[in-house]
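User: Hello! I'm new to structural biology and keep hearing that structure can be predicted from sequence alone. Could you demonstrate with Rab1a? Please show me the input and the output so I can see what each looks like.

Assistant: Of course. The first part below is the input, the amino acid sequence of Rab1a. The second part is the output, the predicted structure written as tokens.
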Amino acid sequence: MYEAKILVVGCPAAGKTSLIHKAVNNQMTSEYKPTIGVDFAQKQFVINDEKVMLQLWDIAGQDFYSKLVHVYYKNAIGCILTCDFSNDHIIQDIKMWYDEIRSKALLKNGVPVPIYLACNKIDIPKAKQMMEDEGIKMELQNFQFAHQGFTSALTGEGVTEMLTFVAEETIKVAKNAGSEKDKLNAVIIQDDKAKKSGCC
């Protein structure tokens, strides 16, 4: 089985924690409570008969300016950048975290971790309008995202698809690492058969 540390970042109230709760427990948090420091959840996927466990690290939006926030990035293999797509400052919010992750969340070979953009809260009418805004579409093209998806932690729309894509990409990274595996050192490959043959 593959295990991968995935960062989940974004500005306060972007819906990071709600997105994770929906993905992992199929539940929606009804009351906004800001994450303090970092929270943690796991979600297992089976992709073409191969198991992958995503370790989702929910980084508090308030920690952006903390000197210690980069400590959470160590050994990450990907990042889900969550944004409130009904926010008028959507591009500024995205750029702030995008630049942060690209410069500080690196694989062991120095390459930035892939960033998956979750355009969240599309259940809000204003967010749907923003989805059709040609100016925003053009500005989003200036970023190098591994994937861009539209999600709603309230309805669940797009959430499973987003996490499934991340899981698929994680397996690809692990398989393509080859001689670079030791350098990447971000995916832990566990041999299920070896586990079963061990002592109880």
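User: So the tokens describe the shape?

Assistant: Right, they're a compact way of writing down the 3D structure. Reading them back into a model, for example: The helical segments are 16-25, 90-104, 125-131, 134-140, 159-177, 181-184, 192-197.
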